[in-house]
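Hello Y.,

Per our agreement to keep a running log of every chain we model this quarter, I'm adding this entry. I've kept the format consistent with earlier entries: sequence first, then predicted structure.
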Amino acid sequence: MPNSGPCFRESGGAVRYGHYSHGSLVGLVAGWAAWIAIVSVYARWKLKQSVQYMSSMAVGHGRST
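Predicted structure for the entry above:
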């Protein structure tokens, strides 16, 4: 599968490969699985950034008492 990209004229990568080799249902499932994986990684990354930003704004952060 690493070099199967030039075989297809449409874009889609693994989704197209699954669609052509195993049918529409596999292509649909592969597409949704890829989308969910990308969205969940992005959401986790943004949550981590938000927590770091908010922790830097905490009262007393960086002050020695």
